Request: fold
Amino acid sequence: MISYLDAGESHGNSLCAIIDGIPAGLEIDESFINHLLCLRQSGYGRGGRQKIEKDKIEILSGVRFGKTIGSPITLKIKNNDYENWQDIMAPFATYTNRKQITKPRPGHVDLAGYLKYNRNDLRDCLERSSARQTAIRVAVGAICELCLKEAGVEFYNFVSAIGKVKANVNYANLDEIKNSANNELFCPDKNALYEMKKTIDKAIENSDSLGGVAEVLISGAVAGIGSYKWDKKLDARLALATMSVQAIKAVSIGDGIENAFKYSSEVQDEIYYDFNSKEYRRYTNRLGGIEGGISNGENIVIKAFMKPIPTTRKGLRSIDVKTKETSVSVYERSDVCATSAASVVVRAAVAYEILNAYLEKFGGDCMSEFKRNVENYKEYLKTK
Ligand SMILES: Cc1cc2nc3c(=O)[nH]c(=O)nc-3n(C[C@H](O)[C@H](O)[C@H](O)COP(=O)(O)O)c2cc1C
Ligand SMILES: C=C(O[C@@H]1CC(C(=O)O)=C[C@@H](OP(=O)(O)O)[C@H]1O)C(=O)O
Reply:
């Protein structure tokens, strides 16, 4: 089993994570981690902060000669913006002429955090809850992906809706889905992409913001990971991972949400046997590759529903917690839409869960043991 702890304030010195339990002997491709970090920073509708940050991974422990050695891996990403915030973000800062934040922003943790932690400056709450944290999470997920790649599991992230504009996604065309990473919103449907950009432009014009649907497709996962037990169910664990991403307010496995409004004959995935590959396959994949908490060998599809970005130029009614006077929440800068970035984050969040489910089933102090056990199991499946 792997676990990790991450830390770091949005405008603090840096973001860090320590991951424990990655098998020894895994080759760490830094360029792959940096590629995903770069993808997370991109996307049409992102704000000014992304012009300041140039996320790059630094590995401080757990790797020698490019390979993991079985000890905890320490990761760090520098916050370039810290330079502009040291007067209030350095741990022992003593003087600032900047005002404290006293007007909680609706849709953010500000008010709940203020009440829970008994802070005077709402910045103490918003710094940690900020989605800046998702950068280090992507780095952790990238390492999990590198491990799973060796077992034949691949991850794809894309966007299938921005506001009311929905894409037409062909889930069987993995090349098209993969290539969507090259366009400004990671949308596999070119017509929808154009409309999505227009709707974001409209949000900018109206000083408003948008959410959307971020999806992750996982190919090559064997049938049999997860469990019947409630807290080991794969769909439940993927839902937890996905819902823990900032602004994701609903999740479905496959067509989970639409399926609730249909007849059973329009939903269940009928079974056939493929004599060539010696695999049990489905004619459709509306349930997204998981039945009864266990993967069934089809692609695993996760849809994450993101609310519109809460901070807008327009501002929203709030109160000043010091004076209790009605006021409008403060705007400094913000993303207008970050659904494409969220798709990279969800990909990382679920990669962590899938790796844990794999390690539970196949063990793995070292990569050779892990890969041998996966290959033996794949051979066994062909005999069933
Ligand atoms: C990649 C990403 C970028 C985000 N950027 C912003 C932003 O620029 N401004 C903002 O107000 N919220 C942004 N959010 C959303 C907030 O972090 C989130 O809504 C807030 O922390 C409250 O958490 P909750 O929506 O999960 O309740 C972003 C979320 C993600 C995933
Ligand atoms: C820094 C990132 O996202 C931030 C997430 C965020 C929020 O409230 O979640 C608010 C904004 O922070 P700032 O006010 O510093 O611009 C975003 O830029 C990032 O994704 O790297």
Q: What stands out?
A: The pocket of EPS (ligand 2) is lined by residues 10, 47, 49, 53, 130-132, 134-135, 246, 332-335 (CB under 6 Å). The longest strand covers residues 154-162.
